[in-house]
Structures are given as structure tokens and as C-alpha cells.
């Protein structure tokens, strides 16, 4: 008779973390993560992964640990590459988060309507010949950022522009303060560029 295999009490969390970030809004998973964080850190290190945990902002994710031994390297986490426009949209959302955090808001979460995100993005993206196409392009970028897990739709609406999104705090780990500063300098240069009259 075979001995029953003992499943680790945090096994489901490892699987969840390999699929994407875990946030405090997922109450039971978050409590279990905090309970087993030491065990998780040790276990994930054996897989060549590092647990990134921000208890204050309430998110955790895994990333590859640096390894000199290429043969021992296993790719567990899906790497994503973003287009230039998608990168700009991420930085814009991160900028919105930075502004929200220095405001006097009593809310822990940053909730924005699609319309508000588009209005904010319009300040940076250059409008082409067709305004309708331009706004559709921004809608496509918003959808792509949601698909990549930086926005979470929390309320559907008959009018697409009235849909509400939560800007997930994980964006702070993915777009650091250095990237934000570079963006602000580019934005300043963009605003100061004189428009030539025809």
C-alpha cells in the first residue's frame, strides 16, 4: 500500500502566484500568503524564483531569481513585452497612481472611468487625422492593459466610456520611480515644443 502524498498547505498559492499577482482584495488567498510567507520564500527559491511582497500596498508576485547557472535556469513566469504605446499607457496609469497617493483621498483604491483614463491619455498621445480612430486606439490600449492585469474592470456600463476600472497597485512594481521621472521629463519637453504655424 502506497503512502499518501502530503500536499504542502500553500501549494494552491504557489500555483496562483505562477499564474499572476495575488492582491489583498482576494482575502483568503492574501491571509494564507501572509501566514506562509517564510515557507513560500524558501520553496520558491528552490524553483529559482523570488517572491516580491508589498504588504503595505497589498500585492505579491513572483519573478525569476538571477542565476549564473544557465543549465539550471527554468522559465516559470511568462515574460511580456509591451509596444511603445502600451508602455506609455502603463506609465500614464502609474502617473495617475502617484497623483492619487499624494492626494487627500480616504479611499485605498484608485477607481477611474474609461472616459477619465482616455481624457488623461489624450494629453500625451498625439492625435492623428481621424479623432474617432484616435479614440479607438486609446480604447484598444486600455483593453490591452486590462488584459495584462494592470487594470481590473469593476463595473460594466451600457456606455463603454462609463465602465469603471480599478488601477491595480502592482503597476508600482512594474513601472518604477525612475521610469516615471523619465516620462515626466519627456512630457515637459513635449509641452514646451513650440507649434509651428503654417
Automatic annotation (TrEMBL):
InterPro entries registered for this protein in UniProt: JetB (IPR025449)
UniProt protein name: DUF4194 domain-containing protein
Source species: Chitinophaga silvisoli
Amino acid at each position: 500500500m502506497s503512502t499518501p502524498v502530503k500536499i504542502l498547505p500553500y501549494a494552491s498559492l504557489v500555483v496562483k502566484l505562477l499564474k499572476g499577482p495575488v492582491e489583498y482584495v482576494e482575502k483568503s488567498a492574501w491571509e494564507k500568503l501572509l501566514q506562509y510567507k517564510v515557507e513560500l520564500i524558501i520553496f520558491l527559491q528552490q524553483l529559482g524564483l523570488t517572491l516580491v511582497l508589498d504588504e503595505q500596498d497589498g500585492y505579491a508576485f513572483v519573478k525569476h531569481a538571477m542565476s549564473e547557472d544557465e543549465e539550471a535556469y527554468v522559465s516559470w513566469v511568462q515574460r511580456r513585452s509591451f509596444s511603445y504605446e502600451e508602455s506609455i499607457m502603463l506609465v500614464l496609469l502609474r502617473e495617475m497612481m502617484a497623483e492619487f497617493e499624494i492626494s487627500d483621498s480616504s479611499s485605498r483604491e484608485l477607481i477611474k472611468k474609461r472616459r477619465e483614463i482616455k481624457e488623461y491619455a489624450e494629453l500625451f498621445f498625439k492625435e492623428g487625422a481621424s479623432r474617432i480612430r484616435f479614440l479607438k486606439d486609446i480604447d484598444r490600449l486600455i483593453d490591452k492593459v486590462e488584459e495584462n492585469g494592470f487594470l481590473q474592470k469593476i463595473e460594466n456600463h451600457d456606455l463603454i466610456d462609463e465602465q469603471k476600472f480599478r488601477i491595480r497597485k502592482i503597476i508600482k512594481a512594474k513601472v518604477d520611480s525612475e521610469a516615471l521621472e523619465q516620462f515626466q521629463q519627456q512630457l515637459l519637453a513635449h509641452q514646451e515644443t513650440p507649434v509651428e504655424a503654417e
